[in-house]
Amino acid sequence: MTMEKLKVDIKYPKMPKVKLLDEFKAFALRGNVVDMAVGIIIGAAFGKIVTSIVNDIIMPPIGMLLGGVNFTDLKVVMSQAIGNKPAVSLNYGNFIQLVLDFLIVAFAIFMVVKGISRLRRKEEVAPAPVVTPTPASPSKEELLLTEIRDLLKKNVEK
């Protein structure tokens, strides 16, 4: 048998043409996705600022008040280092520092959301301008009826 005889003509089902790049552009360029990306980038930078504030400004005075303690060094050693094996310890000082980071970030976000909510409430509470309806001018029929009434009053008075 030769190779030409073994050739089999396989027909694959036609797949609909999907332009993956176009779909991705439509998704990525929607307003909410772009806003979210900006928020994540700003949030990451804000997180670094908060970490610096906690590590470099808040924790040193607290550590000094507690007798010169560096919070990142606080730990409970469960097992000493033996040979090449490192020590096993619970690093609760680092945990305390991270909790403070979280609380500061959470408070800052709370204040931002509170400010935005206050602005939205002011927009909603703002009274709508009062429109005083102008009286409609009488129709032709009303004018005619008024004229007839006035004429009848004159006839009754005579």
Highlighted features:
158 residues, mainly alpha, Non-ribosomal Peptide Synthetase Peptidyl Carrier Protein, Chain A, two-stranded antiparallel sheet, 2 strands, elongated
Characterization of this structure:
The chain has 5 helices and 2 strands, in the order H-H-H-E-E-H-H. The protein is mostly helical and 158 residues long. The protein has a domain of 108 residues: Large-conductance mechanosensitive channel, MscL, domain 1 (Non-ribosomal Peptide Synthetase Peptidyl Carrier Protein, Chain A). The chain has a two-stranded antiparallel ribbon. Helix 3 crosses helix 4. The mean pLDDT is 79.
Shape: elongated
Helix content: 55-70%
| Percent range for β-strand residues | under 5%
| H/E element sequence | HHHEEHH
Strand segment count: 2
Query: What is the mean predicted local confidence, pLDDT?
Result: 79
Quote the distance from N terminus to C terminus: 132 Å
Q: For the report, how would you describe the main beta sheet?
A: 2 strands, antiparallel
Helix and strand content put the structural class at: mainly alpha
State the CATH topology of the domain at 19-126. Non-ribosomal Peptide Synthetase Peptidyl Carrier Protein, Chain A
CATH superfamily of the domain at 19-126: Large-conductance mechanosensitive channel, MscL, domain 1
CATH class wording of the domain at 19-126: Mainly Alpha
Instruction: Write the CATH architecture name of the domain at 19-126.
Output: Orthogonal Bundle
Radius of gyration: 40 Å
Low-confidence stretches: none
| Strand line-up in the sheet with most strands | 1-2
User: What's the tally of helices?
Assistant: 5
